Amino acid sequence: MRKKITIAIDGFSSTGKSTIAKLIAKKYNYIYVDSGAMYRAVTLFAKQNNFVGKEFLYEEKLISKLKEISLSFKFNEKLGFAEMFLNGKNVEKEIRTLAISQLVSKVATISEVRKKLVAEQHKMGNKSGVVMDGRDIGTVVFPNAELKLFMTASADKRATRRYKELIDRGDNVSFKDILFNVKERDRIDSTREDSPLLKADDAIEIDNSDMGIQEQFERICTLIDRKVKES
Ligand code: CDP
Ligand code: CDP
Predict the structure, then answer these.
(1) Please, what is the end-to-end C-alpha distance for the chain in angstroms?
(2) Per the database record, which ranges form the Cytidylate kinase domain (predicted)?
(3) Among 28, 42, 156, 199, which residue has the fewest nearby CB atoms (within 10 Å)?
(4) Contact, 27 vs 67, CB < 8 A?
């Protein structure tokens, strides 16, 4: 049997991390963990309880309720990937809205939130044969991952991709707001004190500004196959 490895995919928003991670999980029969979905679900909880809004963040209130947050992924056979559940409710659609994207980076600066989610990510990925994507996977969550990828693309390309995705699913959003959000999240994620978005020293950087999903996937499969052979 082929050896299974741990694959960490980090990078900026809308660089194809989750699309590629799902394809990898399917092809190699790996577990896929979308760590961003977990930060989004905590943000939804905070929003529902009025702990976070555009102009405010009540950190202490959210921290005191963290124990009440239960997150789980359930595989949806029809969709071919796992959906996010918050306290037993499927929140997959709700967590992908622009409203959540506009608050999530603020919530992700809170160390207590990160501590809780990193502990859960460790549990989910404690066996090999895992592909996890996010912002701190190769630097903090799995610093010993055999393969680390760091995805980048121009902000304009990324906003165009995200805009198309949200319009296609029927959300009423403007390109200007999406572009602003992409840049603002880059700024907050890269400058926060706890676990900022950074390329790990041993990560392979892939700029996919001018690369389609298929080309990006094939390149990554070559890297995985090489790594599996070596290890
Ligand atoms: O899919 P997209 O790149 O837009 O975002 P995501 O992966 O769903 O992550 C949403 C947000 O969660 C990011 O902008 C970060 O603020 C936060 N996040 C994080 O801090 N650490 C992670 N490992 C994953 C996400
Ligand atoms: O997970 P992340 O936010 O990095 O990106 P994603 O959700 O996988 O991709 C965001 C959108 O960009 C999706 O609609 C992808 O199909 C699209 N995409 C693309 O068109 N070309 C790429 N090379 C990468 C992503």
Answers:
(1) 13
(2) 7-224
(3) 156
(4) no
For the annotated binding site for ATP, the residues are 11-19
Point out the annotated binding site. Answer: 11-19
Class (C level, CATH) for 6-230: alpha beta
Coil, strand, or helix at residue 89? strand
pTM of the predicted structure, to 2 decimals: 0.97
Whether ligand 1 lies within 6 angstroms of the CB of 10 is answered as: no
Half-sphere exposure of 203 (CA within 13 A, CB side): 26
Q: What is the CA radius of gyration of the chain?
A: 17
**Ligand 2 site, residue 13, Cβ cutoff 6 A:** yes
Amino acid at residue number 138: G
pLDDT digits (tens, 9 = 90+) for 90-111: 999 999 999 999 999 999 999 9
- Whats the size of the chain, residue-wise? 231
